[in-house]
Design brief:
Length: 347
């Protein structure tokens, strides 16, 4: 069993600290990846602090992983030793249900296996995430990385990237559409880049006016301070699509009031407390409210290839492993531009 070490939470109130553990013994279809960079997702913070009520400890977070392949099993065809591989939020699934069979493994009818804090389908051990030295994964759940992209900026694509790319594609965001992005954090800045790249007119909603110049640089056509009722009113009933990435509890009403008839508002942010929905804004416009969960394995590869073709990566602040607890605190203060990525050499 490959030895591993990383940073773990031992309970919902303890800071992350060094932790040694072992990975499952690799199967013939597995690859072993030495982790070079791992992004810091707000979900890692929600999970480390048990904000969703399903956490198990010790927990090594991290699901935005890129690194070098150091071992391949005898049945592996997609990778060879020395290749770069990427691993996201989903590392296994039943592989044989209606959802898995169409490449939507994130909606596996028998439950996807998350990168950390759930039982591994192979040996029942609890999965441990990417704030660590290595990972063992079936090659089907690992991705190839376009050679032209800087790896630190690629890591966040594995969650922030695919979680925003997937709904923008599903709702066919493109030219002629007015699209709103709520929150300019890790997910939000990727949503902004993709919506701009797909040709939509993009309005960035933020609670932090200090981020306005960055939002314009990242591709926003307009920036709106969502706490300013007059500025919000100017956009009433004008949006085709709004993607909400906010990580903290907030009212949906100021945003849903901006939807056009038959428009859609999609939630990807998952705050500790769920929103109370005022149905009126949806009912009288036949508008829809939906959620979306990461993306499937084929779509994640499609997204990475799209990023390679269009030179899209995340704007990152690279940090040493020892600064993870400070990074969590800064993320809570909305002080991240726009994704922390851990340099695993510092582990
Ligand atoms: P993040 O980097 O911390 O960004 C969150 C942003 O939300 C903040 O920067 C802030 O942007 C905005 N925000 C915070 N409080 C707000 C409020 N009260 N009202 C409006 N906006 C507010 O977090 P992230 O990593 O992007 O993750 C965002 C959320 O998505 C988390 O809840 C995470 O768990 C969830 N998530 C879901 C999926 C999925 O599959 N659905 C996948 C990954 C993550 P401004 O400063 O611009 O206001
Ligand atoms: Zn994530
Ligand atoms: Zn399945």
């Amino acid at each position: 069993m490959p030895a591993s070490h990383g940073y773990a939470a031992q309970s919902n109130t303890t800071p992350l600290a060094p932790h040694a553990f072992s990975r499952r013994a690799p199967l013939p279809s597995d690859i072993v990846v030495d982790i070079e960079f791992c992004g810091v997702c707000h979900s890692d913070l929600h999970m480390a602090r048990n904000e969703w009520g399903n956490s198990v400890y010790p927990m090594v977070p991290g699901h935005e992983i890129v690194g070098k392949v150091t071992e391949v099993g005898s049945a592996v065809t997609k990778f060879k030793v020395g290749d770069t591989a990427a691993i996201g939020v989903l590392v296994d699934s039943c592989r044989d249900c209606a959802k898995c069979n169409i490449g939507e493994e994130q909606y596996c009818l028998n439950g996807m296996t998350l990168t950390y804090a759930v039982p591994d389908r192979v040996d029942g051990s609890i999965t441990m995430g990417g704030y660590s030295s290595n990972y063992v994964v079936d090659e089907r759940f690992a991705h190839t990385v376009p050679a032209n992209l800087p790896l630190a900026g690629v890591a966040p694509l594995l969650c922030a990237g695919i979680t925003t790319y997937s709904p923008l594609r599903h709702w066919k965001v493109g030219p002629g559409m007015k699209v709103g992005i709520v929150g300019l954090g890790g997910l939000g800045h990727m949503a902004l880049k993709f919506a701009h790249s797909f040709g939509a007119h993009v309005v960035q909603f933020t609670t932090s006016l200090s981020k306005k110049a960055d939002a314009l640089r990242l591709g926003a056509d307009e920036v709106v301070l969502s706490t300013d009722p007059e500025a919000m009113k100017a956009h009433a009933s004008s949006f085709d699509f709004i993607l909400d990435t906010a990580s903290a509890p907030h009212s949906l009403d100021p945003y849903s009031a901006l939807l056009k008839h038959d428009a859609a508002m999609v939630l990807v942010g998952l705050p500790e407390h769920p929103p109370v929905v005022n149905v009126t804004n949806f009912m009288f416009k036949r508008a829809s409210l939906s959620g979306s969960c990461i993306g499937g394995i084929p779509e994640t590869q499609e997204m990475l290839d799209y990023c390679g073709q269009h030179n899209i990566t995340s704007d990152v602040e690279v940090i040493p492993m020892a600064n993870i607890n400070q990074a969590f605190e800064r993320m809570l203060k909305q002080d991240v531009k726009y994704r922390f990525v851990i340099d695993m050499k510092t582990l």
